[in-house]
Write a structure and sequence with these properties.
Blueprint lengths: L2 H4 L4 H13 L2 H8 L3 H15 L4 E2 L5 E2 L1 H18 L5 E7 L1 H12 L6 E7 L2 H10 L4 E5 L9 E16 L12 H5 L3 E4 L9 H8 L6 E5 L2 H9 L4 E5 H5 L6 E5 L6 E9 L6 H14 L1
Parallel strand pairs: 3-4, 3-5, 7-8, 7-9
Antiparallel strand pairs: 1-2, 5-11, 6-9, 6-10, 6-11
Length: 291
C-alpha cells in the first residue's frame, strides 16, 4: 500500500462520486449532500483526473461508465469502513409497512445510541430495487414475490398465516373458519399490484388448490384493503400481520383452514458486499426480535 499516493485523494471526491451514482445526477447529488451542483461536478472531475478514467457518461440521463461501475462498490466500501471506525453509524432499514409497524420500534430499542436507524417504507418490489441501488442497507419483506437479482440473499425471519377479512355484517363473519373454495365464490380484494403477475401468497394459495378466482380489487396497502372490505366492496385475503396491526373497526378476521400457503417474511441483504459493524448489530437485533 502506497501511503504517499493516498495523499493525492480527498474524501469529498469519493463522497460526491457515490452521491451522483446513488441519486442519478449531479443536481440530485448536490441536494442530497447539501453541496452546490458545481462543487459536486468539481469533485468528480478531480477524481477522474486523479485516477485517469471517466466515471460518468454526462449525457442525459447521467450514467456510470464501465470504469465507474467497477469503482462504485469500492468507493462505497471506503465510506462504510470510515463510518464504522467509531463502532457507530447510520443504517437504512427498509421494510414494508405492516412489518415496519411491528418490528422497527422493537429493533430500535435494542440498539446502542451510536447507531442511527433510518426507516424506509415501501412495497416489496420497491424495496428490492432500493437494496440493489444502495438506497437501503437491508430489507424486511415477504419472500414472495421472488427477487430477480442473484446478488440479494435472505434468511426467513417468521411465517404468518393468510386470513380472510369480512365486513362485520357478512354471513360468514362469525364463522370459525372458511375454505378457499368458499372465498373463490366471492368478490375478492387481495394484496398485489393491479397489473402485476400473481406471485403473492394469496394467489399462490388459490392456484395450489386448483382455483383461479378474479380479484375485484388489488392493493399494496392493508388499510386500503380494510377500507374496501368495510364499505362492502368485497372480501379481503391477506397475511395476518398486515391486518392485526391496523384499524379493525367494521371488519372481522376469519382463519382460512385450508390455505396451504403462509407468508414467509425474510431479511434481505446484498450477498456481494460485506456488513459494517453497525449493520451487523442491526441484523442481530432483527433476529433477536423476530426469533
Amino acid at each position: 500500500m502506497d501511503l504517499n499516493a493516498a495523499y493525492g485523494f480527498r474524501m469529498d471526491w469519493i463522497v460526491s462520486f457515490v452521491a451522483v451514482a446513488r441519486y442519478g445526477g449531479f443536481s440530485a447529488a448536490g441536494k442530497a449532500v447539501y453541496r452546490g451542483q458545481s462543487r459536486i461536478s468539481e469533485h468528480v472531475a478531480e477524481l477522474e483526473r486523479a485516477i485517469g478514467v471517466q466515471l460518468f457518461d454526462r449525457t442525459h440521463p447521467t450514467s456510470l461508465t464501465p470504469e465507474g461501475r467497477a469503482l462504485l462498490p469500492r468507493a462505497e466500501e471506503i465510506l462504510r469502513n470510515l463510518q464504522s471506525l467509531n463502532g457507530g453509524g447510520e443504517v437504512r432499514f427498509g421494510a414494508y409497512p405492516s412489518a415496519a409497524a411491528w418490528l422497527f420500534p422493537r429493533v430500535v430499542r435494542r440498539l446502542p445510541d451510536s447507531i442511527r436507524l433510518l426507516l424506509v417504507e415501501g412495497p416489496s418490489i420497491d424495496l428490492e430495487s432500493a437494496l440493489l441501488r444502495g438506497d437501503i442497507d437491508l430489507a424486511v419483506r415477504p419472500v414472495h414475490p421472488l427477487v430477480t437479482d442473484e446478488s440479494l440473499v435472505h434468511e426467513v425471519l417468521w411465517r404468518e398465516p393468510l386470513t380472510a377479512v369480512f365486513p362485520d355484517k357478512h354471513p360468514l363473519a362469525d364463522a370459525e373458519s372458511v375454505s378457499l373454495a368458499q372465498l373463490a365464490e366471492l368478490p375478492l380484494i387481495s394484496i398485489g399490484e393491479a397489473d402485476g403477475p400473481r406471485q403473492f401468497e394469496s394467489h399462490l394459495a388459490f392456484a395450489s388448490a386448483g382455483l383461479n378466482p378474479e380479484s375485484a380489487f388489488r392493493t399494496n396497502q392493508p388499510q386500503t384493503l380494510l377500507s374496501l372490505v368495510r364499505h362492502g366492496l368485497g372480501v379481503g385475503v391477506t397475511n395476518q400481520l398486515a391486518v392485526t396491526t391496523a384499524n379493525l373497526d367494521g371488519v372481522r378476521l376469519v382463519p382460512i383452514h385450508d390455505a396451504g400457503v403462509d407468508r414467509q417474511v425474510g431479511l434481505f441483504t446484498r450477498g456481494d458486499r460485506g456488513h459494517s459493524p453497525s449493520l451487523a448489530k442491526v441484523i442481530e437485533a432483527v433476529r433477536a426480535v423476530s426469533g
